[in-house]
Design goal:
394 residues; alpha/beta; six-stranded parallel sheet; two-stranded antiparallel ribbon; 13 helices; 8 strands; 36% helix; 13% strand; binds zinc ion
Length: 394
């Protein structure tokens, strides 16, 4: 059901992660969130970082905010995005984590490539028993964020298949068995989160499009199976809250997984069958090549397009953002269009200020189009010239 995006034309948000403040030096590791929050230093740093993440998004005038993925450790390439569930679910042996062989999930980079470091940092706990939610504690972390803002806080986390591909397994008989066990555990966690009032739950990176273009499909691992895993993960949730499927072409160390621009076209029919209210597509970095096909194929869900490139440090101009939104409006009606970053900006490599001003540009560019459409604009305090510290140009 539509909750956070109800009654807003061109709602704005970011994907999730934001660059860590340099002073946020504490890490969760294998401690669970409530356990870590007992220690004064962790609690202070976590709550202060969370406040910065959310306040920056409010200053930029976003409609829907995130917690910046505040739970992540300060690791190589933002590996915590994948590693957080294995580090906190039940059924994993955490005392002896093992490196993931290259090639798992179709991910392989040679030595000398920056993402080879990312491969080497996939050192994950091993599955040794039946998987369960354990101490994911998504609800507690979402509450910690939602209690300091009036804006809706979107909760996003990694998909079941990404975790499945990254871990080794001494318990389940097959990859799909492991995948569905993780999906079921996530589903239980998300129901608790939805029941607590979370207004948007975002499943990050169903592998539908990556498997479609990588052609690593075999008779088992197919885009269709990925849709089944997604739908199992979110089963029953749309009766309670708004469900998003986030897709992109990668963001560890702010890199895409491919040297060339990829098209979503081989995966759009499958995407149209996911049990979600909103699907997000990376669009800015690819020059909007798929907008027409997305508009034609995604028939009833809302569509969120990326208008900010998370791979580059060049901050987009509001007019560039507006141009991308206008291009999307040729194929997607305004009532079904939403605006975001292509992906998260906080998986190592971008400064906080770059991310902040990209977010401001996102909101200002959306306001340009809102003005053209005659609909309410967002207040962007970060761009209010009355509070400039320099005298105006003569
Ligand atoms: Zn992404």
């Amino acid at each position: 059901m539509y909750r956070a995006t109800k009654d807003i034309i061109l709602p704005t948000t970011i994907t999730g992660s934001l660059p860590r403040p340099s002073w946020y030096t504490e890490n969760l590791g294998t401690r669970h969130f409530l356990e870590a929050m007992v220690t004064r230093r962790f609690r202070e740093q976590y709550e202060d970082a969370l406040t910065c993440y959310i306040r920056d998004q409010e200053l930029a005038g976003l409609d829907i905010v995130t917690d910046g993925d505040c739970r992540f450790d300060d690791d190589v390439g933002g590996q915590s995005w994948t590693a957080y569930p294995p580090m906190h679910m039940s059924g994993f042996e955490r005392l002896n984590p093992r490196p993931t062989p290259a090639g798992r999930g179709g991910i392989a980079f040679p030595r000398g490539h920056i993402l080879h470091d990312y491969l080497e940092s996939r050192v994950m706990p091993v599955v040794t028993g039946p998987l369960g939610r354990g101490d994911l504690q998504y609800t507690a972390m979402w509450k910690a964020a939602q209690r300091i803002t009036e804006k809706p806080v979107k909760w996003g986390a990694v998909s079941a298949e990404i975790v499945t591909f990254a871990v080794q397994d001494a318990h389940y008989k097959s990859v799909p068995d492991r995948m569905f066990a993780i999906a079921d555990a996530f589903n239980e966690e998300y129901h608790e989160l939805a029941d607590a009032g979370c207004p948007v739950i975002q499943i990050e990176e169903p592998q539908i499009h990556l498997i479609a273009v990588r052609k690593i499909q075999d008779s088992v691992i197919t885009p269709k199976l990925m849709v089944e895993v997604f739908n199992r993960t979110v089963k029953g949730l749309r009766a309670k809250t708004e469900v998003w499927a986030h897709s992109c072409w990668g963001n560890p160390s702010q890199q895409r997984m491919f040297a060339e621009v990829q098209s979503y076209k081989p995966a759009l029919e499958a995407y149209n069958t996911v049990d979600a209210d909103v699907i997000t597509f990376e669009s800015s970095s690819s020059g909007g090549i798929d907008l027409e096909a997305i508009g034609k194929t995604i028939s009833d869900k809302k569509i969120c397009i990326g208008v900010i490139d998370h791979h580059t440090l060049q901050v987009e101009q509001p007019e560039q953002v507006a141009a991308q939104i206008r291009a999307a409006l040729k194929h997607i009606p305004a009532e079904r269009l939403m605006v975001s970053t292509d992906c998260g900006m906080g998986r190592e490599g971008m400064s906080r200020r770059h991310a902040f001003y990209k977010t401001v540009a996102l909101a200002l560019g959306t306001n340009i189009v809102r003005k053209e459409l005659g609909v309410p604009q967002a207040r962007v305090l970060a761009a209010d010239d009355r509070y400039s510290l320099v005298a105006p140009a003569k």
